[in-house]
Sequence to fold (365 residues):
Amino acid sequence: MSITAIPPVIDPMIPETFSYGTNHVLQTVTVTTLSALPDKGYWVICIHGGAWRDPTQSALNYLTPAVSILAASEPYASTTHAHLAGFASINYRLSPHPDHPQDRNSTTPTEYRAARHPDHIADVQAALAFLQRKYGFGDRYILVGHSCGATLAFQSVMGSFRGNQTTTSNNGLVDGDGHGDGHGDGHGDGGDGVVDGSGGLGLGLGLGGGSVAMGPQAILGTAGIYDLRALRDDHVQIAAYQQIIEGAFGEEEALWDAVSPAAVRDERNGVVGGWTAGRLAVLAHSPDDELVNARQHEVMSEALKPWVEAAASSSSQGGGGSSSSSRRKVELLPIKGAHDDCWDKGIELARAIAFTLDKLLELQE
Fold:
């Protein structure tokens, strides 16, 4: 009597974690692939928040609640889920946190949290390039960021970062010291990171050589930080805001302005010049957010107007009228809860992702 072998059942919802760099244990990305439409569905790629420094926030705990809701709860399970090919969530090197101190002498370099700009965005760019090479989804993805993760999401499509960075290597790994330019100060060719005479940035992202990840079709920012100086000024009585920004970017306020997506308005260095693949930006904010005020999504909405107009102007000059292929939109989405409730509970983040996908699909019609 022969026994027919039964192939193992593979649960596509079990996440896998991959390393995209060798410099630090935080250079990882957690991925969950779905069986539905692997070649046509959209990827949702997440960037967690935590003020560039909170080690209690991670790729896995940011992604898990919302993904579980999108996969198992209606109406998402029978609608949104069918249009998705996979989820990914990016870890990146963190700046020091006063409430989570480390001893440099007893902590290995690969675990020591001492990141400073451009380390955070360099890691995000390297992770995106790694995912592009591994899964080949092109521009068919939605980039989702919370708080400083939203900063990183919009930074990733700014012209100053896409144009002035060196690109990723074929194996997707950043170089030995994390900067790729032989400088150990974390500021690359720009030294102190201030704006240069031409208006460009000496960002020195230093990711090696190869191909830059293609920008997303949509970006969803929840409780996003888009203007660093404005955030500090609106909370000038609270010293922690100054300390957080200085810890991640240093004391030079010219650099703060140059890396703030809402503050860079010239086409070359801003979103207009860098996000050519973009179709949709969704800015989600809760009136109950106790940490990031409404001014942040208001100034970002204003900053995105030239990006929308650039597509309409290009279409008009090309004789394409208002065809769907050239339409761009900015949506303001009210959400509920305190600053971290969106991702911690997952309900509002799942709703925001579904909303973003629905609006993006409408633009394809």
Q: What stands out?
A: The CA atoms of residues 67 and 357 lie 14 Å apart. The radius of gyration is 20 Å. Residues 1-11, 164-211, 319-323 have pLDDT under 50 and may be disordered. DSSP finds twelve helices and eight strands in the chain.
